[in-house]
Specification:
Number of helices: 10
Order of helices and strands: HEEHEHHEHEHEHEHEHH
CATH topology of the largest domain: Rossmann fold
CATH class of the largest domain: Alpha Beta
Largest sheet: 8 strands, mixed
Radius of gyration: 21 Å
Structural class: alpha/beta
Length: about 300
């Protein structure tokens, strides 16, 4: 006798694996690109949380990193240059139940898209922003980016890089992204390195778990135009065991020290819990309508 399935019968939980988060599109990055590590770490973090692919949206801008959504079995939006964050915020506002992830590179995120970063931080939307930093414009063949070290002349020569002393190499100052994000007031700030697969997956997962805007600085070398694997491996150290990730000022000071000493720390620099933008929207909505309106959909139905 076959037992009938009733409404009270619990549904069997579907246990997903890494394969469930891999699309049929094969990655097209250069061999050795650090973005392979970021992709793998992200898929592993999603699998560990057993998230339904239909409830995941990944938004990207332009650049090598912008291709990432194509390689994940989830909904993806490949938007125009520098606009991943405002689009991701719109997706989250339209459907707060979705897991929304924005991905981008140092150029996409902090050059043309740099003006969107502080506003995404101050709204504190519940999205995770994975910033793949290779300190170069890789897709357009090696021009210096906002995070290229000042004076660096090892990149492919371009008209934006003088060749005569005393000003050879990159003239502009190098942005300190972590310091900027911390000063803006981000509620979750972490750094990781694509060569540290397990650590990267763990930190991305913690960013996904965080209720608020989480920023993951993923150092992701470009072996074609600016191969930094070896120097970064020597420069990366974990945060101290007794690190206080609730001290924002101390975290800012550390990022400034790093810039002077040429080193990088991996781990969670800072985290705190604050109401998200949608938390505040729902609170205002509830107070305005009390028990009469249970949702935005119900409100819209009044005018249908």
């Amino acid at each position: 006798m076959v037992e009938a399935v009733t409404a009270s019968t619990p549904k069997e939980t579907v246990k997903r694996t890494l394969k469930d988060y891999r699309s049929e599109v094969k990655p097209t990055w250069c061999p050795g690109c650090g973005d392979f590590g970021v992709l793998s770490a992200l898929q592993r973090a999603l699998a560990e949380r057993n998230l339904d692919p239909k409830d995941i949206v990944i938004v990207s801008g332009i650049g090598c990193s912008g291709r990432l959504p194509e390689f994940v079995n989830a909904y993806g939006l490949h938007v125009v240059h520098g606009r991943a964050l405002p689009t991701a915020q719109g997706v989250k506002a339209a459907n707060p139940d979705l897991t929304v992830i924005a991905v981008g590179g140092d150029g996409d995120g902090f050059a043309i898209g740099g003006g969107h970063v502080p506003h995404a931080v101050r709204r504190n939307q519940d999205i995770t922003y994975v910033l793949m930093d290779n300190q170069v414009y890789g897709l357009t063949k090696g021009q210096p980016s906002p995070t290229t070290p000042t004076g660096m002349a090892a990149l492919q020569r371009s008209s934006s890089m003088p060749k005569m002393a005393p000003y050879e190499g990159v003239l502009e100052g190098q942005l300190n992204m972590l310091a900027m994000i911390l000063v803006y007031g981000c509620t979750f700030v972490a750094r990781t390195f694509s060569s540290q697969a397990t650590e990267m997956s763990k930190l991305i997962g913690q960013g996904l778990d965080h209720h608020g805007f989480s920023f993951i600085h993923a150092m992701s070398p470009c072996p074609t135009f600016y191969n930094t694997y070896d120097p970064w491996k020597e420069s990366f150290v974990p945060l101290p065991e007794d690190w206080d990730d609730t001290d924002r000022i101390k975290a800012i000071d550390l990022t400034m020290e790093e810039a002077n000493e040429g080193m990088f720390h991996s781990g969670i620099f800072y985290q705190e819990q604050r109401p998200t933008y949608m938390d505040k929207v729902h609170s205002v909505f509830s107070k305005a309508h009390g028990d009469q309106i249970s949702s935005i959909e119900a409100l819209m139905d009044q005018y249908a």
